[in-house]
Amino acid sequence: MDKKLQYVKKELLRREIPPVLLVLLLLAVLLLNFLLYMHLNNVSITTGQPDVDSSLCPFGYFRLGSLKNCSPWLSCEAINTEVRKLKCVGEGAVKKVFLSEWKENKVSLSQLANSELKEDFLHGLKMLKALQSKYVVRLLGYCEKQFTVLTQYHPLGSLKSLNEMLDLPRYKGLNTWHRRFMLAIDYVSIIHYLHNSPLGTLVMCDSNDLDKVLSQYLLTSDFHVLVNDLDALPLVNKSAGRLVKCGHRELQGEFVAPEQLWPYGEEVPFEDDLMPPYDEKTDIWKIPDVANFFLGHVEGSDIVRFHLFDIHAACKKKNPAERPSAQMVMDTYRKMLTLLFREAAMPGTREML
Ligand SMILES: Nc1ncnc2c1ncn2[C@@H]1O[C@H](COP(=O)(O)OP(=O)(O)O)[C@@H](O)[C@H]1O
Ligand SMILES: *[C@@H]1O[C@H](CO)[C@@H](O)[C@H](O)[C@H]1NC(C)=O
Ligand SMILES: [Mg+2]
Questions:
Q1: Distance from the CA of 252 to the center of ligand 3, in angstroms?
Q2: Whether the predicted pLDDT of 235 surpasses 60
Q3: Protein kinase domain: which residues (predicted)?
Q4: CATH no., domain 54-152
Q5: Which ligand sits nearest to residue 196's alpha carbon?
Q6: Which atom of ligand 1 is nearest to the CA of 152?
Q7: CATH no. for 159-352
């Protein structure tokens, strides 16, 4: 900013503007910048905050809206006696999810729906425990022997219904490029968190098409994104040369990354043992498609798309090693939000400063 101010000063001096006016102008510029930064700080809630939310409790405890204290995760016994199932609100390959009630709170009870997928269910629970943070749905309890997990309930449901929600009269005011871009930043921040998690680099594998991706994330009532389904989250360890595969079956289509496709052509039948493994850059490949969904088609979405063109082109590099890290995508998104927001708030200031 000092450089910018020096430049403005020099320019103004060159044009021989009276010193009083100069001082006033500089003050005005400073004030505008100050107000803008204050505003941006309020707006980009997810920017620059530590991973651990202050409303979180120590490991093994949780806090819910109306409750003041941290309670320990509910055990099998507490779940069986204190939780009442109300209705089924979702079903995936692994779990059946019920809106339920616990001490006058709405909670979400997930139960194993396919007994062949016990491993996945337990892996998801393990991840949920280990990754509790502002990016992950809050764990309230679990019962391993009955294959049930209790989490915070989010009435807006998964990201699949984002467009329907934003069309409701009550949320219409939130259907702006700015809000939508902030959701995309939330999403990329979650990918960044998973790629740099306390457990190491985790790949979001349950993501073979856009709808699948969207169904693994929840939309909170204050319009933020949380990751909910952590059942398919293998660990990459580059220093140990350990890569991953998302499942044992052949993947097809353009949504998955090219390195996830069978590389030996149609003449050679698919064989899992011959399929080469890959790393977390498959998540980066998918970011532009998910971001496009978030941006939608409102006034200003296309301008955001235009500004994200280069970073998205980089995400779609065929060679995974050439794709940017989640950190780079996240930084670019945040920079663009600041830039575009400044443009929208004070048209022409970019040229002036
Ligand atoms: N805490 C929750 N609040 C509201 N809806 C939820 C919650 N958890 C899951 N759901 C709904 O249930 C669906 C399936 O949940 P998910 O955990 O992805 O199951 P699966 O492992 O079988 O894919 C989600 O896409 C979402 O619509
Ligand atoms: C990765 O592998 C190395 C070497 O085997 C090991 O020391 C390290 O703990 C592993 N890291 C993670 C995150 O598992
Ligand atoms: Mg799911």
A1: 19
A2: yes
A3: 83-353
A4: 3.30.200.20
A5: 2
A6: 1
A7: 1.10.510.10
